[in-house]
Amino acid sequence: MSEVRIRHRQGGFVLDAEFSLDGAWTVLFGPSGAGKSTLLRILAGLLAPQEGRITIGGRTLLDTAQGIAVPAGRRSIGFVTQQPALFPHLTVRQNIAFGVRHLSAPARAGRVHEMLHLFGAEALADRGAKNLSGGERQRVALARALAPAPQLLLLDEPLAALDAASAKDILRRLLDFEVRVLYVSHDLAEIWRMPAELVLLDRGRVTATGPLRQVLAADRERLLEQLGS
């Protein structure tokens, strides 16, 4: 069981959201300013809400009523944004290995190799992170986030800055990988064919949930008008 219930006020904006994360992929969809990125920061443990409860796979990460708040580094959550933050002084291999330092050297090397292969980045292994293109940086950021085998992977519009071919290739590779994902987007075309559940967020509130195409089909015209305004 994986459930999210959050109430958080920032200035005049109130995020009041409740939904489950029981499918392999869940898309958090809504216009800019809906509260999507704020919600992801709360899930990751980077922002403390005034009220809330978060359970992932039956493990309680946050329960404000009981004073439970697992630190970000112990939540087993990977987080990748549109602008990946790699260590520029490290190589690609060293960046990916950073999150699995607790493994033995052979196990660490094997996991790094697996992640490089998953994202088609073997040729980049010994290149400095500061010398990568935008698409290459995003592949490495995703590989680094997945290396520790997180319980949940948060993706905050990770493909928005990439060309169509790179975005399609990375998304295909992610969909083939077994990990629970919460994917944030405001691009209807990008998510339309995803085999995912949908959480529709508008002005800080969940307005609909369910199978992605089923929910979007009922609201497609209104969403297109809203997103285009």
List its salient traits.
7 helices, five-stranded antiparallel sheet, Rossmann fold, 11 strands, alpha/beta, six-stranded mixed sheet, 229 residues, globular
Can you describe what's shown?
Strands 7-8-9-3-10-11 form a six-stranded mixed beta sheet, sandwiched between helices. Strands 2-1-4-5-6 form a five-stranded antiparallel beta sheet, with helices on one face. The longest helix is centred in the last third of the chain and has 17 residues, at 212-228. It has helices at 36-44, 92-97, 105-118, 134-146, 164-175, 188-191, 212-228; strands spanning 3-10, 13-20, 25-29, 51-56, 59-63, 68-69, 77-81, 152-156, 180-185, 197-202, 205-211. The protein has two domains: 1-76 and 153-162 and 179-229, Rossmann fold, CATH 3.40.50.300; 83-149, no CATH class. A hairpin with a 2-residue loop joins β10 and β11. It is built from seven helices and eleven strands.
